[in-house]
Amino acid sequence: MDRKLLEKYAELAVRVGVNIQKGQRLLLRTSVDAVEFSRLIAEKAYEAGAKEVYVRYSDEYITFLKLKNAPEEIIEEVHSWEVEAAKFFCDEKGAFLSVISSDPDLFKEIPPEIIGKFSKANQMAMKEVSKEIMSGKVSWSVVAVPNEKWAKKVFPESTNPVEDLWNAILKTIRVNENDDPVELWNKHIENLNKRTEFLNKRQYEYLRYKGPGTDLMVGMPENHIWVAGTQKNVDGTVFLPNIPTEEVFSAPHKDKINGYVRNSKPLVYGGNIIDGFTMEFKDGKIVKVTAEKGEDVLKQAISLDEGASYLGEVALVPVDSPIYQLNTIFYNTLFDENAASHFAFGKAYPICIKDGTKMSEEELKEHGLNTSITHVDFMIGNEELDVYGIKDGKEELIMKNGKWAI
User: Fold this and answer.
1) Rounded distance between C-alpha atoms, residue 318 and residue 341, angstroms
2) Is the CB of residue 139 less than 8 Å from the CB of residue 96?
3) Three-state SS for 230?
4) Is-contact 226 196, C-beta < 8 A?
5) pLDDT of 207 strictly over 80
6) Which has the closest alpha carbon to 370: 289, 302, 298, 284?
7) What DSSP element (H or E) covers 41?
8) What are the sequence ranges of the domains in the chain?
9) 337 near 142, Cβ under 8 Å?
């Protein structure tokens, strides 16, 4: 891949993603498949004024071997020094940047209950750190780079799948030879903010989703806030958690969701592919799940704790977004969630309600927001989905056939 394009990508991750500030520390958590790109990120971070770039490499295959061979007590063990390292960067108000590069099929032979125990142990250990991150104490962002197995999954007929996946990723993140991606993203974010301004003024009491296999009423809490791609940390620094992003999102009222919804794209969870699934809700709780593929894994995922069986996020994404228009399934939530409207089961973002970042967990619950150790996005949008906003008994069309109607 052209180094100049990679440099633009790294610059985007540093200056728009985490928006590194002079004198700030950067915790760079990255895959061993992304060494070259991670070094570029470190270069750009130091150029932007970072005082330290601390790199934590991870190897998915080593994790696979652990889950396959280690005794249960080791699978459920999280070293205290790992938690302390993350807490240190939170306390220092450092920035957290993750570079992911996954194999969608790697963990398919690992029993769902093993993946569930491993996930729960890690999420419980990092609960307080995750709370601080989701509450806006620090800036954070996630980007991705290809690897051979992921690329072959996305482009199985290609003679050069890695290059094809690189090209697809660069299109989704608006990186090309001629334009400044930072400028392009600033314009894109401005357009997303116009949507959130409209929705925040409306303060709909309910959203109604209607489409193939979907008929769902979603209650919204009082004083909810719609957020575009960017967020702002407690120091006022604007950052972009996901690159790419096409969504505007908020938090539903966890107890006011009734009906059923069907996914529109595969969900990759714990290295397993889940597809063809329907969820049925009653008073907010997922009471029934069926899936053509990965049903046991999905049932395990929504059973991690009480909050895992309730929704924590509603997100609207138009089907005329660049990612949807590629007509490509990435088998990676970072991209697939930004190709379509989606929900997430599990924890709600405190930023999605007025003064939420100042609330305790109990106060968030009192205001209708879900709490959990997990947060998993799944896609439900397509060209046949309509979304309505309801207030004072009046219904307004927000999305028609998957496109904005506002």
Assistant:
1) 7
2) yes
3) coil
4) yes
5) yes
6) 284
7) helix 35-47
8) 3-172, 203-404
9) no
